[in-house]
Amino acid sequence: MKTKLLYSRLILPALLVLFAACGAKKNLVKTTTSTTVATKTTTGNAPNPELQKLGFLQKVADNAVYANNIVGDMKFNLKVDGRDITAPGSLHMRKNQVIRIQLFIPLLGSEVGRLEFTPDYVLVIDRFHKEYIKADYNQLDFLKDNGLTFYSLQSLFWNQLFMPGTDRLNETSLRKFEANLQPTTATTPISLKQGNLNFVWNADTKSGLIGQTTVGYHSAQHGNSTLTWLYENFMNVGVKRFPAKQTFTFSTTATRQKRTVQVTIDMDEVTTKDGWETNSTVSSKYKKIETKDILAKIMSF
Fold it and tell me: Which residues, 6+ apart, have CB-to-CB distance to 62 below 8 Å?
């Protein structure tokens, strides 16, 4: 009983706080398909720096996984306010449709909670209290104010380069990124600034794989927030590679006091299984919690 109560009161609220202020801009990319950038040289076969940059950015964008589904059991770890908690879980993602995180009670294996993002709504299910919330993004002020959408999270979870306000990456949009190409360095930083947001992707200079993404959000009204997303243990998914281990750390001053939350998702394997329902169904026995009520609980956590 105490174990279930601990997981329901700590892990689910902390997850919501983390995702609530990820600091990603509205209307982020829905897909990361891109057009081919031709490789050219200047007179005398000297490299053209701009085309070299575009070629590298193309390589990074082309690393996007082709699969429509990413599924795997995982070890979930949460660090917040000096506490360090680990639980078994699972991750189910279907491209442009859903991101689902499920958490289970160790040894018992029963589900304690579920966090689900779709393009239209956010769903949180608390199995212990038999409660849930389901709201579109406009109903959740803390999501709306921070510009969080499904597609922004998808880009982060799927380890993809993206640009706010576009539905694809082409040569025109790629030219808006900055890339400090130094062939002698192991990683190459790619940066983009838009409004209150600063994006930096650190990509492997040779392979173009993104190893870290940092999003900085600076606002006089909503404070300063930083999200750092690390990618490790890349596994083969078809001809592409997907990071089975992801660690995201979120720090913000938007709350009354500075808060830092770190979550690690370490998948045992990465599969493309498709035999699962896209959308979760909530039992009629569960009580729906008003959005404002649960947000008050979350922000006072």
Answer: 34, 208
Question: How do beta strands 178-179 and 187-194 pair?
Answer: antiparallel
The residue assigned the tokens 């200079």 is 205
Distance, in Å, from the CA atom of 301 to the CA atom of 296, rounded to the nearest integer, reads 9
Question: How far is 241 from 32, CA to CA, in rounded Å?
Answer: 15
Residue 58 backbone phi and psi in degrees, to 5? -60, -40
**What residues does each domain of the chain span?**
2-299
83 Cα distance to chain centroid:
22
- d(C-alpha 247, C-alpha 213), whole Å: 11
DSSP-derived letter for residue 172 is H
Q: What average pLDDT does range 192-196 have in this prediction?
A: 84
Class of domain 2-299: mainly beta
Strand-pair category, 287-288 with 131-135: parallel
List CB contacts of 262: < 8 A, sequence separation 6 or more.
78, 79, 80, 247, 248, 249, 250
- Kindly state the DSSP code that residue 64 receives in the 8-state scheme: S
Which of residues 301 and 220 earns the better pLDDT score?
220
- Quick check: pTM over 0.85? no
CB 217 within 8 A of CB 23: yes
> CA–CA separation, 187 vs 204, rounded Å?
4
| Nearest Cα residue to 55 out of 195, 160, 205, 159 | 205
